Each structure stands twice: as C-alpha cells, then as structure tokens.
Amino acid sequence: MYKVVIGLEVHCEVKTNSKNFSSARNTYSEYPNENIDTVDIGLPGILPVANKDAFRKSLKMALALNCKTPDIVMFDRKNYYYPDLPKGYQITQETKQVGVNGYVMINVNGEDKKVEINNIHLEEDTASLDHFGNYSLIDYNRAGVPLLETVTEPCLHSADEAITFLEALKGIFLYTGVSEARTDRGQMRCDVNVSLMEENATELGTKVEMKNINSFNNVRLAIEYEIKRQTEILKSGGKVMQETRRFDDEDLKTYPMRSKVDAVDYKYYIEPNIPPIKIENSLIDEIRSEIPMLQYERIQKYMNEYGLSRYDSDIIVRDKKVSDYFEETIKLKVNPKSSANFITTMILGYLNKYEKTIDELYLTPQMLCELIHMVDEGKISSKQSKQVFFKCIEENKEPKIVVKELGMTQITDDKTIRDIVIKLLDERPDLIEDHRKGKNTFDYFVGQVMKQTRGQANPSITANIIREEMEKR
Ligand code: ADP
Ligand code: MG
C-alpha cells in the first residue's frame, strides 16, 4: 500500500460589481460578450486599474484563512499564449501575494485536521472557449473577472480529506461574502495534484496535476482514478510521469494533456502598469473586524456550549443565515436543544420542500422562542406546536394568536383530568377487569380523555392519573 499525497489549487471568482482591472460589469450572463471592455479583450495601449473591492475581499479571505499578509502587495505578469488570454499574459501575484502560510481547520469523519495553506493570490479569470465541429467561439464575459487562487501544501491524504477541505473553503467564501462559490456556474474550480509514496519514504513521489475540475464529486472521482492508475504503475515497477492530465467526466478516467510547464517558462515579471499597494495595519484591523465567526468555530461552540450533536451543528451552520437565526433564538434565552430541534426538523424541512430561504419565513426567531416556551411550559403539546407552526407561516399569524384561535391551550390541571378519568373508570368496570387479566385497555381510556377534552389534556399527566386510578381499584 502506498501513502496518498494531495495538494489543491482552488480558483474562486470574487463577487464584485466590476472586473479586476477594468470597469466592465462582473456578473454572470447567459449572453456571450455582453460584459466586456477594451482591457478585457487586450486592445493595444490598454491600462489596467486595480479594483479596490476585489483587493479588500482578497485580504479578507487571506485573514479568514489565517494567512500572513504583506506590507506591500504587487501584481505580476505571467506570460503565455492561449486564445482565451487575449493580452498574451495573465495579471497575477507571484512576488507578493495577499496571503501566505495560513491554515484551515477541518473535521474529517469526526477527526480534526489542520490543512496548511501555502498562499492565496489575486489574479484574473480567462475568457471561455466553446468548441464546435471545426470551429470554436470565444466569450469574453469571464475575461478579467477577479479570481482568488488558494494553494494548499501537499498535506491531504485521501479523497475524503480533499472534499471536506473544499467544502470548508466554500463555507468560508460564503460566510465572508467574498464569493458565491457556485460550482454549477464555474465560479469555483480546482486543480488537483496527486502523488503516491512508500509508507515510510521521506521524499514526496512524482505528482500528476489534473486541471480545472469543476465539481466536488468529480474531484473525488479524479483522485480515486489517479490513485488506482499510479498504484498499478508503481506496483509493476514503473515510474509515474510528471504531467498535466485531464479528467473526463464521461468515462471517469484521466488522460495526458501535456508534460509539466515550469514557473520559469512563464517569464514572470512585475506588472509595470499597476503601482505597488501599501497595506496599512489599520486596514487589516478594519477588515479583520468584518469577518464573522466561521463554521468550524460555530460548530465547536454549539457542541461545547450548547450541548448539540455534531450532526445537528453541521446542519445548522451549513447556511450562515440559518446559523444566525439559531443564534438569535439563543439570545432570547430559549433552550438551545429545543431550538436546534425545531430548526433542523420543522423549519429546514419546510424550507427545503418549498425551496425557500430562512429570511422568507414569516416566523421570526422571537416567534420561534414564543412557540418553544409554550411547549416547555406545558401550555401546548409538542405535537400541537407543529400544527401551530404551519398555521403561523401559512397565514402570517403569530403563534400566540394561532393557539388562541385553535382553542389549543393544554389542560394540565390535575383535578380536571382526574374527575374525567374517575367518571370513565366508573362507567367501564369490565375494562378494568380485562386490564387485570393482561389485556391492554389503558389506551382506550387515554383516547376517551383526549376525546372529551378535544385533545387538550396533557398526555403524560393523563397517563399518570389513569395509571394511579386503575391501581386503586
Ligand atoms: P509547481 O511548482 O509544480 O506548480 P508547487 O510546489 O507550486 O508545484 O505546488 C503546486 C500544488 O501541487 C500545490 O497545491 C502543492 O501542494 C501540490 N503538490 C506539490 N508537490 C506535490 C506532490 N508531490 N504530491 C501531491 N501534490 C503536490
Ligand atoms: Mg502550480
């Protein structure tokens, strides 16, 4: 068995109004070549201007990934020719990146792991090419869109670890608002480097890079295929070639694309048209203060402080708005477990079914607390609370009003319930006799009490009283 080594280079489009170095709009469009400007199509004499918002968001992401940020940031030109790169070079960061030496904490199947980040840098996206029979079309909408590349150290050791990291990274993009990170729109794409080494070897094996994989599931399949392919080569005494391969999402195999290009081939040099940007400490402090508590820390808090399970915590933090909603209810002094239960079952069940988001829900955190309090105080049963929930959101009414309208307040008063029970037992001595002989007639009496009180008698108090009164006879 060989040890698997994986390093990821993840590209993610930054959410801004305009492109990274031009004033063309940065928005997803179904129409080709709608959002372009002279800079994006590389006309002679163009001058790029750095986008302040893209720059700020890059720093935000660098800080969220626990990276060190430099005093001065610069851009570099990476020279190569390809039809989707009209300028003949890509503006990127090689000498001074927005972030270096960071880490992300993840939890893989119950175990914590620190994923080291080599660097994060800001660059520009390329145009996109559509290939047809004997011609191709170019769409420049994507050309010049700000792109953040996050590069991990070769510290991941399984497809599970790689996918968990990608999900965590996506979560950080969403929580910080730096990107929408939609893989279905190609906003988040990944180059996957895989190598194998002997279990106790000290040097890393030869890696293969698979470019531009655009779904997490394909990342998993590509890694699994590559592990199998490289294992077979090594077992038969062969050597893995250092190369770039393409993952085919139809037959789920990887194919050679080209042999590896080295950094030196790109003839990097500092982009002369964008002056170096000085980063003040005050800017870093300001940006840091805008980063909300992230998923990993929220999960820790929910488990340690609120006693939730990892499973429930994971579900709640998946969407920041849901997690914020949950935290609002905690501030209102509701039992965290009751709140979490209601959110993960009733609320998310409803939102998923109708494809809605939590801010479209009529029930505010305040109202959810009211509802939970009524259950905790025994005013209504938990079964009734579900009925109230649906009526609230369907008719836009507060829980208190709905409970009143449905005449739902629970009967918890001992004497009221006991009187009903005694009368029922008096009427049916035959069933008490049957009960003694081992037949279950208990449920019949519970049913009768519920019938007479229109379901309002508290079920556990009712059961206790029936048990007590039956024993007396
Ligand atoms: P290159 O110079 O070939 O681009 P880098 O050292 O910059 O290589 O690393 C690029 C990516 O490849 C990083 O994500 C890194 O973690 C990963 N990587 C480097 N060496 C290996 C290896 N032996 N096996 C797997 N991944 C690797
Ligand atoms: Mg590389």
Protein architecture, described:
This protein is an alpha+beta fold and 473 residues long. It folds into 3 domains: 2-285, no CATH class; 293-406, no CATH class; 414-471, Arc Repressor Mutant, subunit A, CATH 1.10.10. Helices cover 40% and strands 20% of the residues. The chain has 15 helices and 15 strands. The chain has helices at residues 52-64, 159-176, 216-235, 281-289, 295-306, 310-317, 320-331, 336-353, 365-376, 382-395, 399-405, 414-427, 429-436, 442-452, 459-472, and strands at residues 2-13, 72-73, 76-79, 89-92, 99-108, 111-124, 128-131, 136-139, 146-152, 188-198, 208-213, 243-248, 253-259, 269-270, 277-278. An 8-stranded mixed β-sheet has the order 5-6-9-1-10-11-12-13. A 3-stranded antiparallel β-sheet has the order 4-3-14, with no helix packed on it. Strand 11, helix 3 and strand 12 form a beta-alpha-beta unit. The model has no long low-confidence stretch (mean pLDDT 94). Residues 5-9, 151-154, 193-195, 204-205, 207, 263 line the site of adenosine-5'-diphosphate. Adenosine-5'-diphosphate is lined by residues 5-9, 151-154, 193-195, 204-205, 207, 263.
Could you outline the blueprint of secondary structure elements for this entry?
Elements: E1 2-13, H1 52-64, E2 72-73, E3 76-79, E4 89-92, E5 99-108, E6 111-124, E7 128-131, E8 136-139, E9 146-152, H2 159-176, E10 188-198, E11 208-213, H3 216-235, E12 243-248, E13 253-259, E14 269-270, E15 277-278, H4 281-289, H5 295-306, H6 310-317, H7 320-331, H8 336-353, H9 365-376, H10 382-395, H11 399-405, H12 414-427, H13 429-436, H14 442-452, H15 459-472
Parallel strand pairs: 11-12
Antiparallel strand pairs: 1-9, 1-10, 2-15, 3-4, 3-14, 5-6, 6-9, 7-8, 10-11, 12-13
Helix pairs in contact: 2-3, 5-6, 6-8, 7-8, 7-9, 9-10, 12-14, 12-15, 14-15
Bound molecules: adenosine-5'-diphosphate and magnesium ion.
